[in-house]
Amino acid sequence: MAHDPDDKLILHRAPPGLVERALAEDEQSSSPYWLGLVAAAALVGLVAGQLLERGSEEPARVVVHAVQSELVEVRFQLVAPEATSVAVVGSFNGWQADANPLVPGSDGLFATSMDLRPGRHEYLFVVDGAWVLDPAATLTHDDGFGARNAVLEI
Amino acid sequence: MNFLTLILMAPSALASQTDLEAIYAEATELGVPLEPLRAKAAEGQAKGVPEARLVPVVDQLASDLARASTLLGAQAEGGERASVLSAAALALRAGASEAAVTQLGALESGVRARGLESLGDLLGQGFPETEVVRLIETAARGANPERSVNGVATAASLLVAAGVPPGQALEQASSGNGQGNGSHPLGNVPPQSRDDLPEPAQNSNGQGPK
After folding, report:
1. Which of A111, B9, B144, B204 has CA atoms 20 to 30 A from the CA of A69?
2. ipTM for the assembly
3. Which of chain B's residues have a Cβ under 8 Å away from the Cβ of A97?
4. Assigned domain for B4 exists
5. So what's the pLDDT on residue B99?
């Protein structure tokens, strides 16, 4: 398999036991975030970068690749078997919940792709109307309003 | 929402919009870009944040941007002014010293904003400022500074989550020599996914970075 020398693959996976921990914590907490997470996610993946293995995708991963020099294609993916609607909101779409819905697929998988400028972006998922933090996010940031946003560096 | 509710809400919404316009006007006078302020207001409004809470947050951001503008001066001019000032404001809000912001504000223009954002993100995770500044500068002097600086905070966070001591995590994140990354076709890039990470270290105690 030939690799473009500039290829780069970034994978974020929900850590093992994430859902179990979320469920356990939810039983002890009234946090709306955890309620949203439990309702939403068995697994969340988000990847930024360029295809390392074009055409090689696994259900638990999201692959993102450059589409042109100024933009990077980012694919947001959420496995949320109980959800009826999922969207992604963030600094890239003015936090508009109807701007980027994720398309439902098989096994509760919701996904969408969009072209973003390289740099730092903040985002959240909206699951059945509830704004939830990506539980697989490596970086989060205080939004100033009493909650946190996930941070994506691409 | 009925008509009566709309009537009752209207004065409050009008007042907050007036407050926001006043903030924008003052920011304009100070030469602060309005784009980050309008974006923050839009974020709060989209999240349904009460107006009484939204306005102070936007006002605080305006103050941070003005402070960043004063600190960076000519280092935040041109097409990247808004992004550099936003990054510096983020760093200041995370507790960065003015000296650190000024120091990283001197980075090359292509990596200045990213360096300042990484400063804010890493300070927000509890990493010590002196080490963070040194390592971002090191990354910025590398062969591929944009790639090296971008993702430093994510990489450091991932490494700490994997049990790497914070000091080592910073070194590995900035040098791109993290364990588990040696076979990456790009070679010298920081680990940027959990798949790149080593097994948790023996001394992992589940605590955040110190």
Report:
1. A111
2. 0.74
3. 46
4. no
5. 97
Domain region containing B53: 13-80
CATH no. of A18-153: 2.60.40.10
Lowest-pLDDT choice from A99-113, B24-38, B173-187: B173-187
Separation in Å, CA B172 to CA B164, B166, B169: 9, 10, 5
Give the long-range contacts of residues B47-56, CB within 8 A, separation 24 or more: B47/A95, B47/A131, B47/A143, B47/A145, B47/A147, B49/A145, B51/B12, B51/B13, B51/B15, B51/B16, B52/B16, B53/A145, B53/A146, B54/A145, B54/B16, B55/B16, B55/B19, B55/B20, B55/B23
CB contacts under 8 A, A 5-64 vs B, are 5, 7-13, 15, 47, 49, 52
- Give the start-to-end residue ranges of the domains of chain A: 18-153
- pTM above threshold 0.90: no
Cβ neighbour number for residue A69 with a 10 Å cutoff: 7
B210/B112 same-domain check = yes
Q: Do B53 and A119 touch (CB under 8 A)?
A: no
Whether residues A11 and B195 touch (CB distance < 8 A) is answered with: yes
- How many structural domains compose chain B? 2
